[in-house]
Specification:
With 113 residues, this protein is mostly helical. The protein contains seven helices and no strands.
Length: 113
C-alpha cells in the first residue's frame, strides 16, 4: 500500500487506499484478482504509474489468498515471532551464561513447544 500511495498526492491517499482495499475484501483469489485489475484500470486514467505498479504486483500482493481464510488475518502480523523472541529472552535471562551452543538450541527448542 505504501508503494502504491507513493504515486499519488497526499490529498488522494484516502480515496486510492479505499479503492485498493476493495480487492482485499473479496472472498477468494479469483474475485480479488478481478477487482484488483478493475481498480488498476480505473486508477490508470489518472495515475498511469500506479496502474503499471498494480499490474506488476498483483501476483505478489494477492499471494496470501492461497491460504485458508482463517489463517489470513494472522499472516501480516509479526506478533507470534515477537512473542517467541520475548519468551526465549525471558528464559535466557534466567540461565545467564550458556555452557555451549547445544544448550542454547535446547532452550529455543523448549520455547517452541
Amino acid at each position: 500500500m505504501r508503494n502504491a500511495l507513493a504515486h499519488v498526492s497526499k490529498g488522494q491517499h484516502t480515496v486510492v487506499a479505499a479503492a485498493i482495499r476493495q480487492a482485499f475484501d473479496q472472498p477468494d483469489r479469483k474475485h480479488a484478482g478481478e477487482t484488483w485489475r478493475h481498480v488498476a484500470e480505473q486508477l490508470r486514467t489518472r495515475w498511469p504509474k500506479l496502474g503499471d505498479l498494480m499490474d506488476a504486483s498483483e501476483h505478489d500482493v494477492l499471494a496470501y489468498m492461497a491460504f485458508p481464510r482463517q489463517h489470513r488475518t494472522k499472516l501480516p502480523s509479526t506478533n507470534p515471532i515477537e512473542r517467541l523472541n520475548k519468551e526465549v529472552k525471558r528464559r535466557a535471562d534466567v540461565v545467564g551464561i550458556f555452557p555451549n551452543e547445544a544448550s542454547i538450541m535446547r532452550l529455543i527448542g523448549a520455547a517452541l513447544f
